[in-house]
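Please fill in the sequence for the structure shown.

STRUCTURE ENCODING:
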């Protein structure tokens, strides 16, 4: 069913697993993600940036997710990722998104709390889940870069206060991961994550999941991570396959001859990630 983030993360918590949150960059990529989740029999979170939502159309994304959720027989969440503007979040909620993320991580704590409260006040009228972020994750997200000097790990005590004051459904934490990192793997601060888990009692989220080592995935799930964001690996996979195919395809060949193999390639990446996120012994 088409549902919100709170519902799927509650299920994940009961099973000590994480739900994959996969960024789609086009309408064509979306079926690859949902079909992979169907094959693995797990819930899935479809994420879009504000830019992708505007490019594809909010209502188009909502309609496809609702239809495919019903056909696949799995829980599907449509989540707006890293939105910093109230009007962008309101537009997504009004169009039917079931989950949003307000990213006030660069703001002073009090301002982040106040603006997050504003988002929650609106979202709760539509049964829409809200994720927020404390600390600053490095790397580049949708063209916006955070330098090494700007990176700041999540403070556990600030996290406790933030959660208490806002009532968010999930907290994205900065523990050493980086957006857009795919040529190397990151070193996670497990000690920081342990302290955050002690301080707050709600689902935690990793951004920059592409750069996390496979062997570290189980460790962070056991320490409270319930949502795992993956975007760059899907984008790189699609682009590489596209470059390979479009360079050799006759100009008058059907476009689907190039698109379908890209869908299959992304499907395989998503299935591999979901298997990791199930946290099986």
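FILLED IN BY: designer on duty
SEQUENCE:
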């Amino acid at each position: 069913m088409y549902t919100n983030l709170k519902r799927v993360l509650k299920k994940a918590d009961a099973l000590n697993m994480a739900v994959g949150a996969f960024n789609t960059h086009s309408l064509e990529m979306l079926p690859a993600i949902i079909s992979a989740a169907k094959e693995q029999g797990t819930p899935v979170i479809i994420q879009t940036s504000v830019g992708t939502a505007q490019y594809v159309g909010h209502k188009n994304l909502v309609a496809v997710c609702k239809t495919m959720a019903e056909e696949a027989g799995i829980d599907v969440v449509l989540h707006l990722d890293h939105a910093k503007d109230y009007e962008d979040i309101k537009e997504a909620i009004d169009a039917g998104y079931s989950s949003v993320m307000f990213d006030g991580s660069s703001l002073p704590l009090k301002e982040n709390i106040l603006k997050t409260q504003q988002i929650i006040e609106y979202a709760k009228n539509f049964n829409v889940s809200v994720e927020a972020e404390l600390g600053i994750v490095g790397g580049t997200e949708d063209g916006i870069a955070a330098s090494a000097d700007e990176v700041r790990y999540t403070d556990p005590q600030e996290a406790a206060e933030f959660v208490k004051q806002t009532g968010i459904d999930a907290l994205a934490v900065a523990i050493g991961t980086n957006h857009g990192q795919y040529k190397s793997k990151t070193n996670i601060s497990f000690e920081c994550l342990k302290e955050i888990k002690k301080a707050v009692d709600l689902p935690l989220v990793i951004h920059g999941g592409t750069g996390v080592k496979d062997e570290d995935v189980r460790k962070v799930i056991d320490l409270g991570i319930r949502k795992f964001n993956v975007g760059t690996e899907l984008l790189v996979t699609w682009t590489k396959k596209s470059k390979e195919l479009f360079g050799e395809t006759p100009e008058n060949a059907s476009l689907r001859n190039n698109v379908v193999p890209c869908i299959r390639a992304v499907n395989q990446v998503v299935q591999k990630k979901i298997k990791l996120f199930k946290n099986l012994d």
